Amino acid sequence: MKIINDQKGFTTSILLLILLIPVFLLLVITIDEYSHNVNNTVENLESNQIKSISEDFENEILIVTKESLHNITYDIVTSKRSVTDKDTIRRYIQNRINEKEIHYNNNFLIDCEIKDLKSSDNPFKIELYYLLVVSTKDNKIKNSKNEQKLVEITDKRFPVYDPLPTLKTGATLNGNYLEYGNQLSGHININNPDAYLNTIQSIIIKECPLSDYSQHGNSNETILSCLNNHYYHNSHDGMCIFCRLENKTNCNHFGFETFIIPTKLSDDAPASIDHVLLNDINNQYPGNLVSIDNNTFLYLDNGHKSKYGL
Amino acid sequence: MNNKGQIIITDILLYLIILLVIFSIVIYATVTLNDNQVTRINNKQLNNLLEDSISALTKTSGTPNNWEELNVNKVDTVGLKSPKNQLLSYDKLIKLKNNPYLLDKYFPTGIDYSLTMYSKSNPNNEVLIAGKSNFNNKKQIQSKSTVVLFDYAFDITSFKKENMTVYCPYNHSEQWICKTINVNDESLSSGKYYIISDSDVKYVISNTYSENITGQTRKTCINNQLEQLMRNQNQTIFLHILTNNNNTYLVYDTDNKEEFLDEVIKPKTYVLNMKIAT
Q: What's the half-sphere exposure (Cβ side, CA atoms, 13 Å) at B23?
């Protein structure tokens, strides 16, 4: 008598099947563990990529802001039309950022909202507020940053034009220089406006490198270098970049000023400072002659003479 | 014919042998896979720890990010990246080398580590920054290296052509590049100003009174010249360099790191290696 009746092979098949179950389970466990490792590695890589994309895009935001300010100010000085308010500039930068977002990286979602632009304590820099969110397409990994950055307006790659002279006088830009013709003298409403007839001035905003402005008067070479470069200087009375863009008359922020070099020699004439000559609320005032060399001279009031050591 | 039941016994034996073989294979496979998985998980964890540690060290600046300037008990986490750029801070590395235990809290008990560094051009001169110099009686050792460049905290001004014309007080031609620096007694006493270039360059240093000193150099400290030109407490100085397309820099060094000045012109690559063992 057979102990196991397996003439049709059922018992063997069943036994083999039972034995195959743990093998199958082991296989499933191994595959699952492997896929878990792969997922973890992918998530790590994506997380690292998101961080690096966020950093890169933040640099992009600064560049776009500088480039936008360059474009906006160039448009203003060529079209001679001011921006209505600061939000117009914010929207312009936002649109440029939106364009960058689309083309930046197809594998991730980038969303940057420019919240605000403000004048800063340093008039040659502006404060930029933005919210940057970079995430994977399935939104599993997300990096969100609410930032405030200072953006300099004196980057030589993206020169920013001073819009105030054009907006106040309607003078025409030729290259980087503004040819006032008789438009500045027409704007001046105190004695001897013709001292500024046919004045030509660079209107690219460049910060004067002298740490102490009284050093301007140390030598003719120093003041001439400042005048030739048409440098701008910190000033409580001068207007900030935003107020200049909006063609305002008053500015409560800390601003900057520059010299406007007269063309006609006399004993006194309106002071050769932009916020004096371009003022349109009857706050223009005269200055006394300050001779620098045979061809260059300025008219300055006592306050500005002392500030610049002249 | 099977009158003596031999075939039945042979059948049973065959069954048993086959069953035994299959059982053995399944048990062997289970044990081996289990062992492999445990080893793999251990390896993976060790590898993750190694990668996370070296990544935290080289990609973060630590907290607070100026921890190298603070007392060691005020250091929360250690990171070697300079906050200003993507390079590693030399000052942070030295602080860690002098206080190697700062890195201990990155690693669980029972795990030994070592952090070493060597110059790529001189791999034999390996310096131990933190951790143990050897791992005796350890079963598993994992190692990871990364190539790094150092930031020596110099304040560097590059004399490169810019796309905007700047008129200097001496009306120099376009072959010259003229920059300004603001110098005072404190900046002169707490650091050294160097002009360094990849070949000899002619230079003029002038002040706002049009007084000047000229010279020619590849590498020189100009503090003495600056002192001679100081007329105000805060003196603006014009530096005029006849560059001839050379790489020329003004370097301000506050930590007496003259030996690393050449790396401003030609940065040296180093290899940072981390090993961990269980």
A: 7
Contact B269, B150 (CB under 8 A): no
Helix (H) or strand (E) holding B108: none
User: Tell me: the pLDDT tens digits for B160-173?
Assistant: 887 777 888 898 88
Q: How many residues does chain A have?
A: 310
Report strand pairing: A200-202 vs A177-179.
antiparallel
Whether the predicted interface score ipTM is above 0.95 = no
What gap in Å lies between CA A196 and CA A141, rounded to an integer? 62
Q: Would you state the CATH architecture of domain B155-254?
A: Sandwich (2.60)
Q: Which residues make beta-bridge pairs with B141?
A: B277
Per-residue pLDDT reduced to its tens digit, A243-276: 999 988 788 899 999 999 999 998 889 999 999 9
**Could you state, in order of their start, the residue ranges of all structural domains in chain A?**
40-152, 164-308
Which residues of A fall within a CB distance of 8 Å from B44? 37
Chain B residues lying within 8 Å of A209, measured CB to CB: 180, 182, 236
Kindly state the average pLDDT of the residues A216-222: 93
Contact B207 A33 (CB under 8 A): no
Residues of A in contact with B33 (CB under 8 A): 26, 29-30
- Answer whether the bond into residue A159 is a cis peptide, omega within 30°: no
Q: What is the 3-state secondary structure (H, E, C) of chain A?
A: CCCCCCCCCHHHHHHHHHHHHHHHHHHHHHHHHHHHHHHHHHHHHHHHHHHHHHHHHHHHHHHHHHHHHHHHHHHHHHHCCCCCCHHHHHHHHHHHHHHHHHHHCCCEEEEEEEEEEEECCCCCEEEEEEEEEEEECCCCCEEEEEEEEEEECCCCCCCCECCHHHHHHCCEEECCEEECCCHHHHHCCCCCHHHHCCCEEECECCECCCCCHHHHHHCHHHHHHHHHHCCEEEECCCCCHHHHHCCCCCCCCCEEEEECCCCCCCCEEECCEHHHHCCCCCCCCEEEEEECCCCCEEEECHHHHHHHCC
**Residue extents of the structural domains in chain B:** 1-151+267-278, 155-254
Give the best residue of B52, B170, B208 to mutate against chain A (max A CB count within 10 A).
B208
Q: What's the mean pLDDT when you consider all of chain A?
A: 88
CB contact under 8 A, A228 and B167: yes
